[in-house]
Amino acid sequence: MAYKQYEMRKRNPNPKVAALLVIDMQNYFSAMAEPILPNILATIRLCRRASIPVIFTRHSHKSPSDYGMLAEWWDGDLIFEGTPESQLMSELDRRPPQEDHVVDKNTYSAFLGTRLEEYLKERGVEDVIVTGVMTNLCCETTARDAFCRGFRVFFSTDATATSDEELHQATLKNLAYGFAYFIDCNRLEQGLADSAAISSPTNF
């Protein structure tokens, strides 16, 4: 993979202080989201097994007052609250609201204009695992923002996707260089297993 030359730092998330962010897996993005859905579901299952909280984000707009620059940049092609396109994909393994938190946002970063940072810090979260769509827009911006707010960022290479592989790889290069540790489903599974083994040493 092209990003490998920049991946100089490796680390596993600490399940005791981690949270999983599932970014914008909505019907609007289903064409690019469906290929990574098995990996998203596998990541969710691994995190649930390790008691890592799962947080879904949902991007939509209520009125022109919250369009910002997105309306100009995307020629008005926006996701509007209450439409089928704005809903999270039904295939996602979601639990009731008291278990799985949903963050509504109206720009690329899941932190801007939301209480996500406060929600995480109130729960002692230090590590955030980023998955979802689009790699180079909402996932990347959220990852960079998390880093700047003092969170340790773990970015999934196989549970994120965008419209173009070149854009996906460009984001991975940038994040590896300055912002995030990388995981994939296999690496996450092994890392969580290693953490569990360390936490529960065998007594002889």
Automatic annotation (TrEMBL):
Any one GO molecular function term: hydrolase activity
Record keyword Hydrolase present? yes
Q: Which InterPro entries match?
A: Isochorismatase-like_dom (IPR000868), Isochorismatase-like_hydrls (IPR050272), Isochorismatase-like_sf (IPR036380)
Every copy of the Isochorismatase-like domain together lies at 18-184
Q: Which Pfam family name is an example for this entry?
A: Isochorismatase
Q: Which UniProt keywords apply?
A: Hydrolase
The source's domain of life comes to: Eukaryota
Q: Does the keyword Signal apply?
A: no
The family note in this entry says: Belongs to the isochorismatase family.
- Protein known as: Isochorismatase-like domain-containing protein
**What organism is the protein native to?**
Rubus argutus (Southern blackberry)
